[in-house]
Amino acid sequence: MNFFNTKFGKGKGKKDGSNKPLFLCQPFVSATLVNGSLRKVVALPRYVDLNEWLAVNTFDFFNYTNLFFGSVAIFCTAESCPVMHGGPGHEYMWTDSQKRSIKVPAPHYVDYAMSALQNHLNDEQIFPTHAGADFPPHFQTVVKHIFKQLFRIFAHIYHGHYDKILHMSAEGHLNTLFAHFICFAREFDLIEKKELAPLAEFISELEATGRI
């Protein structure tokens, strides 16, 4: 039997008869690896340069998000996900090298996005690694762009592949990473409020339970 072809986790909250996605239903919505708020974890440490703190955490969030998408990537195909989306009403277009907005399947979008973000992270002119090197004036703008793209990948995982996360019993890990990500983004104003709409209800649940 192929459990991954069932509708489990694809959008219906069967237990209460609602149409909520499963990540908004109990017990999944409350599954985290920490009980308290992550706000203290994301605060800028004393004597640490702001851009250094942003850089280190951006690297970490990129790597962890990449790992999570990698865990469901085999199920994210051009056939199963013909458009990149973050739930109903939230489709994402890719901007190509000619600045044209084009519709591409989700796995292509994620591949393009992660490759572009990796190039930014590897660019010594943007993310310097040598002692004494300065961050460029537009560094925080680049960080905001990275966070926007990472959020879109989170949104697609939650709305498109949460059933796979449940089958791996990884919902607590994913929820904790996402709560940490949102906490950090809020602390340093890295994502516009309108971008958060696909997971706004889930973010409100994280607030209500004191995670962020």
Automatic annotation (TrEMBL):
User: Is this entry keyworded Zinc?
Assistant: yes
List, alphabetically, the Pfam families matched.
Mob1_phocein
- Superkingdom: Eukaryota
Q: Where does Zn(2+) bind?
A: 76, 81, 156, 161
What UniProt keywords are attached to this protein's entry?
Metal-binding, Zinc
Keyword Hydrolase recorded: no
Q: What is this protein called?
A: Maintenance of ploidy protein mob2
Whose protein is this, by species?
Rhizophlyctis rosea
Gene name for this UniProt entry = MOB2
